Amino acid sequence: MARYTGPVCKLCRREGTKLFLKGERCFSAKCAMERRAYPPGDHGRDRMFRRGRASAYSAQLREKQKARRIYGVLEKQFRRYYKEAVRRKGMAGTNLLVILESRLDNVTYRLGLASSRAQARQLINHGHFDVNGKRCDVPSALLSPGDVISIHPTSRQLTYFGGFEESVSADAIPPWLSLDPIDMSGRVLEYPTRDQIPLDLNEQLIVEFYSR
Q1: Interatomic CA distance for residues 96 and 86, integer angstroms
Q2: How many CB atoms lie within 10 A of CB 132?
Q3: What torsion do the CA atoms of 129, 122, 198, 100 make, to the nearest 10 degrees?
Q4: What's the rounded mean pLDDT across residues 102-120?
Q5: For position 124, what pLDDT does the model report?
Q6: What's residue 43's pLDDT?
Q7: Residue 185 pairs with which residues in a beta bridge?
């Protein structure tokens, strides 16, 4: 499985905003955006002060890169998702975000079973989750309404999942998902609407980027 393996804090600094790629660290004083809120590189600080008005292409590219990095998707796969979004009925930009939100690693993260999407991918790769009763180790698997995600029976005794019932807040679960802390399982109730996806993204710029 191809994935980015470099320092993720540099990605936030490059985009000039927090992408919340490292879980709890992003909410602490250790966050790179709190300490060095300028682009990475030897001349990053200089570029921050010399930065002029961005071109239309630059704005489109940065928005596309931001979405890719938030969900941990490389370009080839992201482009496939865009083609699928165009094929579906409705607005291509919204469809694209719905597809990305439907990934197993993202749903696991949204349910509070992992502190970040990267951690969710690792847990899924190690076979700690079932989808509809069958073990699934593919983080990019797309889920549909009615699908049930649960912790694999042999993984429930792990220290990581200990005290899971007390650590997860039902109020933090998106309305398009449901969580049963006692059964250690979650369900996809429906596809999310745009206002249920809490991301500061202008998906129309992504559509314009691929429509050039």
Answers
A1: 8
A2: 11
A3: -80
A4: 93
A5: 96
A6: 47
A7: 150, 180
User: Among 23, 195, 199, which residue's Cα sits nearest to residue 116?
Assistant: 23
Taking the C-alpha atoms of residue 176 and residue 192, their distance in angstroms, rounded to an integer, is 6
Contact predicate 131/143, CB 8 Å: yes
Write down the CATH superfamily of domain 9-100+199-210. Answer: Ribosomal protein S4/S9, N-terminal domain (1.10.1050.10)
Give residue 39's pLDDT band: very low, low, confident or very high (50, 70, 90).
low
Helix or strand or coil: residue 29? coil
How does DSSP classify residue 149?
A: E
Q: What secondary structure does DSSP assign to 78-99, as a single string?
A: HHHHHHHHHHSSS-HHHHHHHH
Orientation angle between helical segments 203-210 and 56-71, nearest 10 degrees? 110
What lies within 8 Å, CB to CB, of 101 at 6+ separation is: 107, 110, 191, 192, 197
